[in-house]
Each structure stands twice: as C-alpha cells, then as structure tokens.
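Archive transcription. Copying these from loose printouts into the bound notebook so they stop getting lost. Printout 1 of 2:
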Amino acid sequence: MILPIFAYGDPVLRKKGESINEDFPALKELIINMHETMYHANGVGLAAPQIGKAIRLFIVDGSPFSESDELDEVEREFLKSYKKVFINPQIIEEMGREWAFNEGCLSIPNINEDVVRKDTLSIEYLDENFKPQRETVGGLAARIIQHEYDHIEGILFTDRLSALKRRLLKKKLENISKGLVEVDYKMKFPKLIKK
C-alpha cells in the first residue's frame, strides 16, 4: 500500500525516533509499504518519520544511481544491488574526506541543495530479520544512509545548509508545509490550504 509522505513542517519529522523490537505491530507489512511508497515517489531512501512513525527504521535502494555516468564502474555495480532495511541503526563513525552532493528529499519536494558530508561511515543495525549487522560503506551508499539516518534523528537536509541558504529557502519551505507545491505522489501537509 502506498502511504502518504509527511511534508516539511510536520512535527513528526523533528522527533528523534524510538527503537523498536521484533514485536512492533505489522512490521513486515510496514516495510513492504515503505518500499512501495519509496518506489512510487522515485526515491532512493525512506525513513519511518516520513510516513508519520517516529521510530528508528529506514530503507535504502541505491540502484537508481547505478546508471550514473559520473560514478566509476565499481560503485555503479555496488549500487545496483544495494537495497537494505535498517532497524535501530547507530552510526559508529563518519570518516574520510568531506564532499558536497546535491541532495533532495521526498518530504521537501522540488528543493535540491549541495550538502557536505563525510564520504565513508561505519554503521551497526538490525536487518529486517533482526539479525545484527555492521558495515563500512562509502560513496553514494554512505550518502543515502546519512540522509535517512538524519531523519530518525529529527534532522532534515536543509538543517545542514548555511543560515543564508535557509533564509533564501524559507518561503519555499513554508509553501511546502501549506501544500502549495506540485508533487506526483501522495503527501500529508501540516498546514494545508484548501484549494
């Protein structure tokens, strides 16, 4: 089932996610619905707060980037099958060089800005079968994880922009929260203005 994506301004996007256990109600169905929702909106990641649940869960699928000519063959091959579920993740370390990449967000449609992040991270998490995992990831896969991880910490990519950039985007962000934006997927707007 395709779920509505909560738009910028909704309080759930600012909550730090709660850890969950295997007894979380309808978890398998939730993960399936999150994948359907993400693919319907042409996303490469989706965090539970974006569908109104303040829990430590997100999904990623780097395969859309596997077609990019800007990446080397090794990274394209890696991203082709990089599809994961992260439950109760904890970033252990971010390392490497800082690099800027143009990020967008399904909760903040039609806004893309360069965000600076470290290029490699180590993360511990539980997979969809609640098996403990630990991995070190670099490049775009790390970028997608960092972006989604921010969501479960109550952080949006716009928070990582300069104060000047945020001021310049203020009106656009207000319009998103009011539903004054064109999107081709279901959204829930906190300050919807009826048309």
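Printout 2 of 2:
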Amino acid sequence: MRRKVSINPSGSDGFTIEFVHADPHKAQEVTNRLATLFIEETMKSRREQVDDAVDFLVGQVNDARTALERKEEDLRHFKEARMGRLPEQLDANLATMGMLQQELRTVEESLLFARERQGC
C-alpha cells in the first residue's frame, strides 16, 4: 500500500508538500522533515531581513546624529561670530548700555568737579 501525506498551510502564501511512499510513517517523516527545513529557511531569511533593516536604521540614526552635530557646531560658530548682536541678547545689551551710560555720567561729573577744583 502506498501512502501519500500532504501539508498545505492556509493563507494566500501557502504551499503544498507532497511525498508518496509505500510506508505511511516514512512518508510522514519525510514530509515533516521537508516542512521543518522550509520553515527553518523561512525563519532564517526573515532574521536576515530584520538584521538588514536594523543595520539600515542604525546607519540612518548615525548619519542623522552626525548631521545634527555638524549643525550644532555651525550654530555655535554663528553665535560666536555674532556675539552681542543676537536678538536673545537684547536685554543683556540694554542692561549693559544702561550701566555704561551711568558710569559715563559719573566720570563726566567727576571730571567736571575736578576742573572746578583746578579753576579755584
């Protein structure tokens, strides 16, 4: 008596494994082994795809990090070159200008007082 064993998983990506042998147990062993090998190969292929995707994403993250570091360095140079002239420094510049104006008045008053003393 010949025995035929088939494996046909459900789904649109299904496949059929068929092996015909006189010994039904042998037919089932061979069919199971073929299915196992196919599943193992599919899993290996998917692992490789995942590894490739991870490598790609790691590369993208590293490229983005490098680009960001370059942009931060450019921004630092820009701010250094324009120190004191940036909009966010307006309040500090106004406060400094007020202090310098007060200091100028004090020096002018001292100078005027010193001239008056010399003229006496």
